[in-house]
Every structure is written in C-alpha cells, then in structure tokens.
Input
Amino acid sequence: MNDQALRLGTRRSKLAMAQSGQVADAVSQVTGRPVELVEITTYGDTSRESLAQIGGTGVFVTALRDALLRGEVDFAVHSLKDLPTTQPDDLVLAAVPVREDPRDVLVARDGLAFAELPNGARIGTGSPRRMAQLNAYARSHGMTIETVAIRGNVDTRIGYVRNGELDAVVLAAAGLNRIGRSDEVTDFLSVDTVLPAPGQGALAIECAADNADLIAALGELDDPFTRAAVTAERSLLAALEAGCSAPVGALADLLADGQIVKEMRLRGVVGTTDGSTLVQLSTTGPVPETHDQAMSLGRELAAEMLAKGAAGLMGERAL
Output
C-alpha cells in the first residue's frame, strides 16, 4: 500500500461528519495511510420534502455512490439504515463495523420518560415506523398522544422541544452517542416498545468492487455478528417491501448462554401509522454463518408476517 491519502466520501451533516471521522481514524490505523474527508451534498440533505414523500430509499446515498463510481472518492461511509436493500454490482460493502446502540430514544421536556408524558402530548418524528409503534403503544396503555411529522438535523429536532412547540421528539440513540449528546436523552425506548429501523445504529463502509487491496484493508473493520444481524434485518425489509408498503421495524440480536452465543433472534413489525394495526413476529435460529443463511432468516420471517396480514397494510410511503 502507498502512503497517499485515501479519500472518504461523506455527507456534510454534523452526524455524518462525526461518524465518518471515527471511521477515518480506524481506516488510517489499519492501512497506515492518511484519510481525508470529502464532503458531498445529497438530495436528501437539500430537499425540504418529507422523507416519506421523496421515497426515503437512497436519497442520502445516491450522490455518494456516484462519487465512488466516478473515482472521486475511494470509499464512502453510510448510515446502514439509509442504504437501499439492493446492492449495485460495481460496489461492495467492504465492512460493517461493530454496531452502536440500535434503540430509539426520547428527548422530552422537563426530563420526562415516555410513560410520564401528559395526555395529548405532541411527539415529533419524521418516521412512519416510529409513529406506528408509538401510537400502538399509547393505544394499548390508555394514553393519548399526537405524532407530528418533522424533519431536520438533531439541533432542529431538539429545538422543537426546547422552544415548547413539541413535548418530545424521537431520535436514534446511535446518532446522539456519536455526536456526544446522549446526556440529552430523557428515555431510552425499549425495543419491546419500538423496534428500530433495519440496520439502525450500524454503519456501512462501501467501495468499488474492483479495488481488491482496499476491500481487504477495510475488511479488518468488519464485525461478523453485526453483519449477520443487519443482513437478516434488511432481508426482512426487502421481502416486506415487495409485499407491503407499511413502515417496517426490525432487530436481530444474539442470544447467549453465559459467554456462549447460541442463537440469533430476529424480530419484525409492520403497522399502520395510526397504530391501529400492528403485525409483530419473531423467529429464532442458529447464528447465520453465511450471507445466504442470514438472508433466509429474514425472508422466512417476512413470509410469516405477510401471511399474518402484513400484505394488507398500506403505509403512507409514496410508491
């Protein structure tokens, strides 16, 4: 390997820059080469439309991938939950590093936890997945809440709470951890209450499929358990996207007996955004040892969910 700087393509947001900076340091250590960040503006960063309207899928990723394919950057870092489920042939996911906390969190006024929110509390989130599960939880616990669609970066979202427009906002724990703001969290939402987005908390490091040296170097940052988990989650998402347009939550975790990891559990949920209908199922099996095994875990659970009525749930995602 030479000592020329590697170019890392990243979105410009504070969060993207923070997580790319962390990856840059790690890549520098394994390659012995300096890494420079190349900031790229994506459609998702400039559009003011809601993510549900602009399709969500790929809006933060396409510009980075184009820069990779044009050779303007050597590799790119994505939030894995932003990646479309189909992988382009000429790009490869060289590494999925150890996952951050996958949970969603609440940042509420007066330090309130979710269960302590007053009746009629206004909770901001841009995610139909979060809305569906928060509304379903509230229904089943005799609470009345109003979910309010919001967009913007972390400062903007938390600002709605600070200035009194909203009682609370829901964000990803991983993002707040990465920018050093986890002390603002007033409640960590249990995955039994809100299942995260498929791949939430994980990063994807992508490069050109023909760059064998770089693929090998980046591969040292790969965590096989995280990769198996997010592969199962994304396989579930892909199979459900084919059969329903409702918002999907999914989480694969490892079940250990003492220090010995025995099995992988995959949980999935789809629901209507008002929370009136949720289809939530889980499956447990041996820890996948290959990509295909992880994929089939996701597909099998998706088939069960579709059979249980997920196919009849039409979400508000623009088709």
Remarks:
- Confidence is low (pLDDT under 50) at residues 50-56.
- The longest strand covers residues 260-271.
